[in-house]
Amino acid sequence: MAGPAPMVSVITPVYNGETHLAECIESVLNQTYQDFEYVILNNRSTDGTLEIAQEAAARDSRIRVETYPEHLDVVSSINRAFTRISPDTTYCKLVAADDWLFSNCIDEMVNLAEQHENLGMVSSYVLSGSRVGWDGLPYPSHVTDGRQICRMRFLDQVKVFGGPSASLIRADILRSQVPFYRVGNFHGDNEAYLELLKSRDFGFVHQVLSFRRRGEASRTTSYLQRVDSYLIGDIEELLHFGKFYLTESEYQDLLNARLKEYYQFLAKSVFHFRRTEFWDYHRSKAEQLGITISRPRLTGHVLIRFIDLILNPKRSIESAIENFGRRH
Q1: Choosing a second label site near 311 at 20 to 30 A (CA), which of 3, 200, 201, 278?
Q2: Domain tally, the chain
Q3: What is the Cα–Cα distance from 186 to 219, expressed in whole angstroms?
Q4: What is the pLDDT of residue 217?
Q5: Are residues 85 and 187 in the same domain?
Q6: What is d(CA 13, CA 155) in angstroms, rounded to the nearest whole number?
């Protein structure tokens, strides 16, 4: 890397994260890339989070600890954190308090970004629990046109963004796009990336560079899994960005296919005895998106599902047991 190394702001907004925060902090301090500041934003925690952060700051001058004046929801907390990076920062790397970075993470991402001026963001493979995820991009595709990667996301279901802790973002984009995540959207990171890739390229390092904690250990991930928000999240992305990245016929065909899939998903959920939390989320989200759930159409899918249960009892029992295991 020629010339002085660009400054990176690493940010961790955290609420009651004492269980994993120390491990997260150490993963940042152990980076082979050393030209960074580390801002830990305490979201009015009531456990030992603040003490852990302050103790780390006392050991390393690159760490700055701030406490929000009021408690914020998850999305607002991250948006606030993005505004706290230093004015001379070139790149920003978010790492959730539940997650951590492999030691060469920032080094590899900055190295790629510095070689390509139009890169808006860089991502990589992610170790999600015990599984390597976000591996759908063929090697060697280190740089992909932003429009192309978004078309691949919609048309081929190529998912490579990897979540907030997986991405390095140019700081000038964060400064020009405020708030970066749309308030109220738990999948706001994907939406923000789809927005910035309208005019920027996408970078990908074909290495595992971050760890994402799954299940009950991650509060937000746990909630999104309980309400199974991912399919309607895909529909939301399509409604907001499909007409920009797709032709009209591609958009209409894909929207019809996604809505059919969503009805099948809701019908299946009837027989999985989902909790009130699940149904409240989907009613509210569908209404917010302007999706009218047709009762006759849903009833038809429920009947089809009921007939399938009767004709395939073994498969139905196995599916019920698998679903029970995911929720308990």
Answers
A1: 278
A2: 2
A3: 12
A4: 47
A5: yes
A6: 34
- Do 127 and 245 have their domain in common? no
Residue whose C-alpha is closest to residue 139's, from 127, 125, 155: 125
Q: How far apart are CA 6 and CA 300, in angstroms?
A: 58
What is the spatial distance between Cα 261 and Cα 301, in angstroms, rounded to a whole number? 10
243 and 213 share a domain?
Answer: no
Residue 172: domain span: 8-223
Helix (H) or strand (E) holding 54: helix 49-59
**Structure tokens of 74?**
């998850």
For the entire predicted model, the pTM comes to 0.86
- The string of DSSP codes covering 269-294 is HHTTT--HHHHHHHHHHHHHHT----
pLDDT in tens, 197-211: 999 999 999 999 999
Quick one: how far is CA 266 from the chain centroid? 23
Same domain, 196 and 263: no
pLDDT category at 327 given cuts 50, 70, 90 is very low
pLDDT of residue 294: 85
Q: Which residue has the higher pLDDT, 326 or 67?
A: 67
Say if residue 183 is in the same domain as residue 260: no
Task: Judge if 42 and 142 occupy the same domain.
Answer: yes
Q: Which amino acid is at 72?
A: L
